[in-house]
Amino acid sequence: MADPINSEELLKLVQEKQITAIQRIEDRAVKAATEKRFKAIDDAIGSATSNWVKAFGSMSAEGTGSPLIEMIRSALGASNSALKGLEASTISALSEAVGVAVTTAQAQGSAFVEGASGKAAARRVDVPAVSLSEERAAVKAAVADGLKESKALLKKSVVERLGLRGILGGLRRARNALGRAKSTIANSVNENVTKTMRATATANKADFEVWVAERDACVNCLKYAGQIVKKGEDWTGGQSWDPNQVDKKAKGVRPPLHPHCRCRPVPWNPAWAREGEVSLPEAISREAERSVARGFSLASESNASRVRALKELLSGSPNFPKTVLERARRDLRNGEFARGRAVP
Q1: Could you read off the pLDDT of 50-71 as tens digits, one per residue?
Q2: What is the pTM of this model?
Q3: Which of 79, 86, 190, 285 is buried most deeply by CB count within 10 Å?
Q4: Same domain? 29 vs 153
């Protein structure tokens, strides 16, 4: 067996290649189950807006008469159509996705162990059986809530009072249900990958796990990056680089930390660290700090939160090159990240 690969290359393997591979599986399932449904609702929202203006003169105008009745009927039809069969399509897509994800994670786990240890990975990994009963119940509840909430808003008396906001609100309740189904898919895929990695740790006698986060993960996930716990144990909950989000009373956590989170634990054995070299947990932690320093993030995360995280990071005198520190301090003074927030 070849020598272990260095920590930087191992980090690229788990943080980029392996996470990206699982993300593609997740995205395919989300697309298969919800893409056309999202489009139908979005088209209905656009049509409702333009039809309201045509019928009543402006978006703020009151709606009355037969045009109003027809618009309510149309919105109800769109909501019902978008959610009809959602449970079946979600579970069908998820069943395939989880199967592929688990198989992929088994291969990924073996590749990681061999890269980290320089030894052959265990051939047998006892992965827990997959059950989608909780996911089915979650989507079923989302559909029921979406239909109930849409129907409550798409009543003549309500729309007469709220105007166009009532029509759009009803459609958006259906859209929210689709969003819940989407989150269910993402969470299920990643939770089953996590279970597979835990089983990989057991099979390879790796008694610890290290938290791996994406480079543009949120300030909460980045705080956990590189932290080690004993296999199967929780990480201390409520951690964050943003002081405003720290919760010292929070319960222990394991990845995924939140909806659409792609953090994952990977097996770790302290014996895999090589003397005189940066270990994988250290490399993960350093990369997370660099992400905070540069403001790497998704558009959904607020600039204010990232700035607070940067201030917290700099208060600890991180070991960064002079140019990185200068740029980070300038960004902190300006209250924004001058070079953008996307991962290069």
Answers
A1: 999 999 999 999 999 999 999 9
A2: 0.86
A3: 79
A4: yes
Q: Are residue 178 and residue 229 in the same domain, yes or no?
A: no
SS3 of the chain: helix, strand, coil, percent, to 5: 65, 5, 30
Q: In 3-state terms, what secondary structure has residue 208?
A: strand
Give the torsion sign (CA, 33, 35, 40, 42): positive
d(CA 179, CA 282): 36
What total number of domains does the chain contain? 2
Q: Domain check: are 200 and 227 in the same one?
A: no
Q: Which residue has the tokens 């014996």?
A: 271
For residue 208, give both structure tokens: 């610890």
105 and 39 in a single domain? The answer is: yes
Report yes or no: 284 and 226 within 8 Å, Cβ to Cβ: yes
Residue with tokens 């980029």: 16
2 pLDDT above the threshold of 90 = no
Q: List, for residues 170-184, the tens digit of each pLDDT value.
A: 999 999 999 999 999
Is 294 inside a domain boundary?
A: yes
The DSSP bridge pattern shows strands 208-212 and 264-268 to be: antiparallel
Q: Which domain holds residue 302?
A: 221-334
Q: How many angstroms separate the CA atoms of 202 and 116, rounded? A: 15
